[in-house]
Amino acid sequence: MALISFPKSSLLILLALVPSCQGSKRQVRFGDKATFTQMCVRNCLKDYEDYLTEGNKPDPVGQCNINLDLGRGEWDPKAAVYSEAESDKTTPPPGYFDSPAVLEALQWDCKSLCNYSCFQSHARRSANEKKIPIKYAEKWPFVRVFGVEEFMSFLACLLNGLIHIYYLTSNKLRPLFVGPEGYRMKTPMIIYSVVCLNSYLWSAFYFISSNKRTETMDLFFAFFKSIITTWVTVYRIGGSGAGENAFGNTCAFISLAALAPFLFIFAFYVYLMTSFTFNPMMSMRLQLAFMGLHVIMWVYWSLIGRGRGKGYRWKGLACLFFLNLITFIEVVLGWDIDDFPPYFGLFDNKSIWLLFTVPLTSLWYSFLMNDTKWEVDAMEKKKK
Ligand SMILES: *[C@@H]1O[C@H](CO)[C@@H](O)[C@H](O)[C@H]1NC(C)=O
């Protein structure tokens, strides 16, 4: 049995390696290089400067809406004024439910609104003329919702985060996945949940507004999550299954010490990214490698582990299978590089991937609760 099933799980190693040898990047044209966009931005900025030289104080976003009518209407570079009659009523407005207060709170200013408005105008024109969609300043023209840049991805992060908060704060559910007082997995499981929650929080910030800072935090904490997940898996699978660690005792310290090398890897990663080269692609590959390792360990456990948890291991395997499937589509088929323009200005590859992870997160918790119960029961039995 073991001999037959092991090669299957080792196939997953390939899954972690394939993203490293991906094909070349497709050439993308940028809409911000188009004459229309450049003129539009220039006129928009000029009107803004004129407004300031008239002695008006810069009042970040509210003033753009009053004087430049940005973020609402279509900017027409020929007339240099927004014209209600010319706007195409059948296409969606540049932003949904934006209010100056929200835009200001999210640090949009008139200049970035000039960009946004002109990019959206050009994107709509291209769509009306049935031209192929193009990127603007290296990004697809997402339509803002409540001032949030990539709303669907943001929403998916929020939902994932809420699941973690729900399990962490529920007095009924928390003991079911962290186990009773004195159980070796108690602290690691809490750390795991908090680290996942933290990672989704930073992703959410990134999707609200992508800039160097939010991108860095998102990458770092996503990598941290993959490191901690791997540690928790080593810790969990390494135990005897009866509440003991790999050394056959219940000393929490020994198992917690296993965290040290993982923290060292993270420190080295931070050093690489900050002092050596800030490379988001490398970060993603490293993260995938650790996620691959985590998957291999669980699959190994499920197929040729100690035969524990026979009844519920399908949950864990189903989670890993679907997570791999969507990651395979996302990464291996190259969606993350040759990504497609967002449908309705909202749904792109990342948001679809993230929305699929929402039900998987709850299924994974359900699996963890079953496994904790199995270990705790075995622990009780052994005591008697
Ligand atoms: C506007 O877009 C251009 C690229 O077309 C970019 O270089 C510039 O930094 C953007 N400005 C703002 C304020 O976002």
TrEMBL record:
How does the entry describe its membrane topology? Multi-pass membrane protein
Lineage, top-rank taxon, reads: Eukaryota
Coarse class of the protein's main subcellular location = membrane
InterPro entries per record: Per1-like (IPR007217)
Q: What residues form the membrane-spanning segments?
A: 151-168, 189-208, 220-238, 250-272, 284-304, 316-335, 351-369
UniProt keyword terms in alphabetical order: Golgi apparatus, GPI-anchor biosynthesis, Membrane, Signal, Transmembrane, Transmembrane helix
GO terms for biological process, alphabetical: GPI anchor biosynthetic process
Compartments, record wording: Endomembrane system; Golgi apparatus membrane
Q: Which residues form the signal peptide?
A: 1-23
What would you give as a GO molecular function for this chain, any one?
hydrolase activity, acting on ester bonds
**Got a GO cellular component term for this one?**
Golgi membrane
Query: What does it do?
Result: Involved in the lipid remodeling steps of GPI-anchor maturation.
Query: What does the sequence similarity comment in the record state about its family?
Result: Belongs to the PGAP3 family.
What protein is this chain from?
Post-GPI attachment to proteins factor 3
Name the species this protein comes from.
Answer: Triparma retinervis
